[in-house]
Every structure is written in structure tokens, then in C-alpha cells.
Amino acid sequence: LNQMERIARVGLWELDMSTQAFQASDEARRILDIPPRSPLSRMALLRQFDRPARRQLVEAVHKAHLKARSSSLALPLTTRIGRSIMVRVFISRQSFEEGRTKVSGVIQDVTDQRQATEKLWWTANHDALTALPNRSLFADRFRKALERRVRSQKVVCLILVDVDKFKQVNDTFGHAAGD
Questions:
Q1: DSSP string covering 109-162, please?
Q2: What is the pTM (predicted TM-score) of this model?
Q3: Phi and psi of 172, rounded to 5°?
Q4: φ/ψ bin of 10: left (φ > 0), alpha (ψ from -120 to 50), beta (otherwise)
Q5: pLDDT, tens only, 12-38
Q6: What is the C-alpha to C-alpha distance for residues 177 and 81, in angstroms, rounded to an integer?
Q7: Tell me: the pLDDT tens digits for 113-159?
Q8: Based on the number of CB atoms within 10 Å of its own CB, is 15 exposed (0-12), middle (13-18) or buried (19 or more)?
Q9: What's the rounded Cα separation, in Å, for the pair 69 and 170?
């Protein structure tokens, strides 16, 4: 199981709801920059999340415990050595015949995937040469501004800038290059 956790880069954790005993696998500790088998309390782990993320996590654990609702959250976290990472936390409830309930799950470092996604989004929405927003991002933001205008009853202003002889660029290289 430890080798499978390392390969998948996921760590397991478990919280006994009656005793509040918290356990985390060595891989979960590695993700959090905590030495294997060193003490780790539930409160120490929660302090690694900022307040909004901590609130989301606690609510999800309570929903899993009280309503048997599984969930998956992507949350920012600061590891014990100060690295800022993004983790995905999967949460689920286990019930036992003795009436005991445990909330358990998986924690996964998704920082690389998040950064790759953000880079792809940026590349798709900005000009490679100038790094300025492109037509696609403009259209999206303008559409959102018009939707906000309807809800807020405020005015939206659009300023057009004309560049002399820019038609030659579009005619020579095409509108995609001109954009």
C-alpha cells in the first residue's frame, strides 16, 4: 500500500469522530513536509490551511460525518517548511457496527497540474508576442461585463483604439496574426 501511495502520489488519512484520533500515512506526511511517523494532530494539520480553506475542509468533514456526503476539494495549503502548494482532498465516511464513525480520505498534491492548467489558460487567452489579452479573452470579459451590467444596473463603457495602417497587417498576415 505504501508503494502504491508513492506511485500515485496520494496520501491516506483517517479521523475517528468519537475519539478525534487522527492518523495519516507516510505519503500524506511527505506531501505536507512532515517527517514519517512524527506526531501529527488534526489541529496542527488544519493550521496549515488558510482560514477560508480551513472552513471549507471542516464543513466537508462534518457533512461527511453527519450526512454521509462524500466530497472533493482543491485547497491551498502551506506545508510545515513553508512551501505553498495546492492539494486535492477527498473525504468519505465509514460506519462500523459498534456505532463508531470514521471520516477518511485521500490528500494529493495537485500543484503541478494546477500550474499547467493556469499556463494553458494564459497561453490560450494572451498574445505570445506582446503578452496582451487576445480577442478571445476580450470577448469573454466583455460578455461578463454586460451580464454584470444587467444585474447591477450600471453602465459599461467600451473604448476603441484605431491603429493607423493596421489593415495592412491584417491583409498581409491575416486577422489571427493581427489579433
A1: E-HHHHHHHHHHHHHHHB-TTT--B-HHHHHHHHHHHHHHHHHHT---------
A2: 0.72
A3: -80, -45
A4: beta
A5: 999 998 888 899 999 999 999 998 888
A6: 46
A7: 999 999 999 999 998 888 999 989 999 999 999 999 999 999 999 88
A8: buried
A9: 55
